[in-house]
Amino acid sequence: MRCMMCERFTLSHICPSCQTTFLTPTLHKRKILGSIEVLSFFPYDDVEPLLLTKHTDVGYYIYTILAKRSLGAFAEQWQYENRVSSIGIDDNAKSGYSHTAILNRALKSPRITPVYGKLRATNDHKYAGKSVEERLLNPRGFTYLPFDHEEVILVDDIVL
Question: CA–CA separation, 141 vs 88, rounded Å?
Fold first, then answer.
């Protein structure tokens, strides 16, 4: 197959050279709503074409690569005194797989336990390609199922 980024022949959807050159994560921290810490690994513009594959068959492979390089590496290095759960936001497999479940699975480590099916949207409104205003007018309306740990990492691919 050909690398999605450089079009060289490779055994993966993104060749090892492009993964190193273009998909080396850099941890960015910011706060939303005053106190909620948000961690991100790539500037959106740098990975937008890859993120847009989530509704295609190749998206599974692309998200697996992104998850391993970012969240997997983060989980290996993360130091924290308590064990926590990680939850993929709306990890319902709608297109053959769940992109947030793929991201969440990459966090499995001695300190982080991924859990699934705990936070599901009740509104199926599609956000892809929609404005912030559209998203605010159509909230997802999540249902929550309890789990063991008191502390949690919420996992999603895009946070505004």
Answer: 15
What's the helix, strand, coil split of the chain in %, to 5? Answer: 30, 20, 50
Question: For 78-118, what is each residue's pLDDT tens digit?
Answer: 999 999 999 998 888 877 889 999 999 999 999 999 999 88
pTM attached to this predicted model: 0.87
What are the phi and psi torsion angles at 139 (to 5°)? -65, 150
Residues 6+ apart with CB under 8 A from 131: none
Position 159, amino acid: V
The interaxial angle of helices 44-51 and 59-67, nearest 10 deg, is 140
By three-state DSSP, how is residue 83 classified?
coil
